[in-house]
Please model this.
Amino acid sequence: MPVSKKQEKTFLEHEYIDLISRKVTEIAYSHGYKKLLLDTIYKTSKFKKVKNFDNSSLVSFDFAKEKNFIKNNGILSFLSSFSSQIKDFPDSEIQKLFYIGKFVESVENSSKAKKINEFSNFGFSVVGNFDHVTDVELIQMAHEILTDLGLECKVRVNITGCVDCIKNYKKILSDYLRTKKGALCSTCAKNVIKNPFSVLNCTNKACQKIIMEAPLIVDHLCESCNNYSLSVVEFLDDINVPYILDPKLIDSEGIYNSVIYKFEIINNNDSYIIGEGGHFTELASSLSCNHKVCGFDLNFEQIIKRLKDYNIPINIYNPDVYIAQIGEMARKEVILLFKELRQQGISVYINATEKKLMKQIAEAKAMKAKIMVIIGQEEIQNKTAIIRDISDNVQEVINFNKLNKEIYKRLIDKIFINN
Ligand SMILES: [Zn+2]
Ligand SMILES: [Zn+2]
Model:
């Protein structure tokens, strides 16, 4: 029975997830980050001290007289898993970690019926005695993942300082907004004292005018935060990370402070924030993680949506060599050849179940393989193989005992020509 359209869509979705996961893992390991496996179930009582903890979206259950819930937030799950799994690590050291996880949340549909929504996030975090280079490396890594996937990404960065700096600025901003209260929209007018940072994000034209002239946090940082801010910006400039300094970027939910950043994808006239990061030491301490912490958290579904917007084709595996076969004898031979090439470190692909050569040629092209090796009945008899260049379709018959050497030679030529 052929695969249905719905099933095909599911496979495609999984391929996207796999593509992103692989990219995340590759970048993480190449920068010395280790994987932290997140716990699945959390005791609700452990989250009592977490500010603004959203109980309503939890998928929870009672077990052994305790309320528990299934993981539903990247950063909180990371912090809780970290403090339960990594104990006794000295303050002078740093832990560089990343996670990839599936989460669940309870959502209400339009008729108020509850349903469970599943989503996937990944994140990178550094715990311990890190400095400005860590912040910059994190921004650069997230940027690298997104651009490697083919997305054009802007990074908005701001330095909002320590908890005292934010408290101080909150008062300065609130005092300023109070003098303009009459000209603000009704929502902003209500937030002037309670949450003046939310006013900075208002898109109302009248509010925008007032925000334009508002005092900026960057002019009100304490000496140590100001120095930190300068080192981050200088370092970002020196390693050419394309970023936009956004002095009004403040996390009104109060999770991130110090260096904070958002990743934005532009498509036509729309822009989408697909994740954010910064320092979250205060949040960490409310979950018994008593170290400095920074990092970011990005959502798979948001990234996949943007990849689809851009019509970015997914290529889950790009082999250098595609081995094609025709006929029963050839199928045996190609499996042996596949093993041999793979053991020699060549990235190679084989589809031993496909019987039509034309389909195999089309697949090799779609996978962007560099060369194709074709073995059929005639080649088996003559102890030869055909090498086909994917870019110009030129074919040559090669003796089987010279095949490996010829494949190496051609691959090296291709690398040098392409560079
Ligand atoms: Zn400060
Ligand atoms: Zn407003």
Remarks:
- The chain has a mean pLDDT of 91.
- The two ends are 45 Å apart (CA to CA).
- Residues 184-185, 187-188, 202, 204, 207 surround zinc ion (ligand 2) (CB under 6 Å).
